């Protein structure tokens, strides 16, 4: 069974701190991995996509890495801001012909001013 | 890149009734995915909708409860039938934008059943 695990489940940091969110997955035959942000009661906003042939992607203050050998991905947020407060979800593409995403349970981030 | 318009954004419904959720994509896509997010939980795939064929449902989800239509390559609907309070969730549709650009989601439908 393909599973995605995110640690920690919740994180509270002061503004300006750098932080790392972790995502691990079973099944080393990973396709692509995507990080999303979800604000309370809202839909998902895509942050970064790492294709299976890539090791990292960067967008502004965000950097995501992928290590297939260890089954891990990390999302690094630099100089955190209160506006970064949200739930962060990582998801991997299911294998074979299914094409859907399999999600972790998310990390709820709170950045305090 | 694909943009999805999903509606309604939210609704409060009486138990025993049905609600149909619509997703319109601004480009043609082969597969559309429907997810459910129960309160405090992550997303769970309900079914995959392909144009011209029956939707494929995940374990625990059945067509009688969640009928899906996919009349063309840009549109799909999900109906939540005979609703109970346990159906209160956020429902989201999603497509793969293709060309290695990842998945995009509709803005979600927040359903409350009373």
Compact summary:
With 113 residues, chain A is mainly β.
Explain this structure to me?
The complex is a heterodimer of chains A (113) and B (114). Helices cover 0% and strands 55% of the residues of chain A. Chain A is built from no helices and eleven strands. Chain A has strands at 4-7, 10-14, 19-25, 33-38, 44-50, 56-59, 62-67, 72-77, 86-93, 101-103, 107-112. In chain A, the strands form two sheets. In chain A, strands 2, 4, 5, 9, 10 and 11 form a six-stranded mixed β-sheet that branches. In chain A, strands 1-3-8-7-6 form a five-stranded antiparallel β-sheet, with no helix packed on it. In chain A, strand 9 and strand 10 (101-103) form a beta hairpin. Chain A is globular, with a radius of gyration of 14 Å. The model of chain B has no long low-confidence stretch (mean pLDDT 94). Helix content of chain B is 0%, strand content 52%. In chain B, a hairpin with a 2-residue loop joins strand 7 and strand 8. By secondary structure, chain B is mainly β. The interface between A and B is medium-sized, with 21 and 23 residues.
List the keywords.
heterodimer; A: 5-stranded antiparallel sheet; B: mainly beta; 7-stranded mixed sheet; 4-stranded antiparallel sheet
SSE arrangement:
The complex is a heterodimer of chains A (113) and B (114).
Chain A: E1 4-7, E2 10-14, E3 19-25, E4 33-38, E5 44-50, E6 56-59, E7 62-67, E8 72-77, E9 86-93, E10 101-103, E11 107-112
Parallel strand pairs in A: 2-11
Antiparallel strand pairs in A: 1-3, 3-8, 4-5, 4-9, 6-7, 7-8, 9-10, 9-11
Chain B: E1 4-7, E2 10-13, E3 19-25, E4 31-37, E5 43-50, E6 56-57, E7 68-72, E8 75-80, E9 89-96, E10 103-105, E11 109-113
Parallel strand pairs in B: 2-11
Antiparallel strand pairs in B: 1-3, 3-8, 4-5, 4-9, 5-6, 7-8, 9-10, 9-11
